Q: What sequence folds into this?
């Protein structure tokens, strides 16, 4: 049983399932109703979305459940592979190369775990469009007030479609430090914080993050007014998740640096490679 759960065959099956389901998801988004439903799913915590989605979008809900099950299968396979193959090799040979290969597997498991936790915990609200003088209430009696919005660059950026906007808003054309929203955070009518929130530089208060994702414009009382599109997230594992993700990338870079030998080919080299791993696992 353990050999089956740690086998390369199960790895291949779970990855094939995931890739196939990703293709099905892309196909579903070709239809406007499913495209909008996927956007709604991304704008909130998954477990909150799931409580209502199974009644209104059963096909999308079934697809998402299959994605979760395939991910869980890959997680189980990685756990048993890491414990029975990679860890035993690291303990037996006790070299940096073997340990770094095991660490990559371990960090991958941690990333999958963090993804799973974020599906069922925290708070998320997306696509919150606010203008100066407006407020938004959320969570446990939290409130944000938009005191001011400054956009000093070309105002035509605000009316472009998103694709053209991304192309035009380069470092040369978009000056991040000159464009911001002044946001005040309250809880139970008591001010907690006041910050200038820049693009890609969120307002942080304990586990709460308020991020400016877009500057927007509309006509109010006969004049063009600039506002912001916000994402509000609150999660106890957010910082830990980004740390683990960074460590996984670092571990992969270290493994490549350790095993990289350009222009040489040593047939007696005991460096763990994908090919040797496949042979051992089979």
A:
């Amino acid at each position: 049983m353990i050999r089956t759960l740690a086998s390369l065959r199960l790895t291949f099956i779970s990855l094939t399932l995931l890739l196939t389901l990703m293709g099905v998801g892309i196909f579903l988004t070709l239809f406007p109703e499913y495209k909008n439903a996927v956007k709604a799913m991304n704008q909130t915590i998954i477990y909150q979305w799931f409580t209502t989605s199974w009644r209104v979008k059963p096909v999308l809900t079934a697809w998402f459940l299959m994605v979760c099950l395939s991910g869980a299968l890959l997680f189980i396979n990685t756990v048993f592979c890491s414990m029975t193959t990679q860890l035993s090799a690291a303990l037996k040979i006790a070299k940096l190369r073997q340990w770094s290969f095991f660490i990559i597997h371990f960090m991958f498991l941690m990333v999958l775990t963090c993804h799973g936790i974020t599906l069922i915990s925290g708070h998320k609200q997306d696509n919150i469009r606010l203008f100066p003088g407006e407020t938004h209430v959320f969570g446990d009696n939290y409130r944000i007030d938009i005191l001011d919005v400054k956009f000093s660059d070309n105002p035509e950026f605000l009316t472009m479609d998103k694709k053209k906007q991304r192309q035009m808003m380069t470092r040369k054309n978009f000056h991040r430090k000159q464009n911001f929203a002044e946001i005040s955070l309250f809880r139970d009518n008591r001010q907690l914080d006041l910050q200038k929130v820049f693009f890609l530089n969120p307002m942080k208060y304990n586990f709460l993050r308020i991020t400016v994702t877009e500057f927007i414009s509309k006509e109010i009382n006969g004049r063009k007014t600039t506002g912001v599109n916000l994402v509000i997230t609150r999660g106890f594992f957010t910082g830990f998740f980004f740390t683990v993700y960074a460590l996984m990338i670092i571990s992969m870079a270290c493994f490549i640096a350790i095993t990289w030998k350009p222009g040489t080919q040593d047939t007696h080299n005991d460096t763990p490679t994908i090919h040797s791993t496949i042979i051992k696992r089979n």
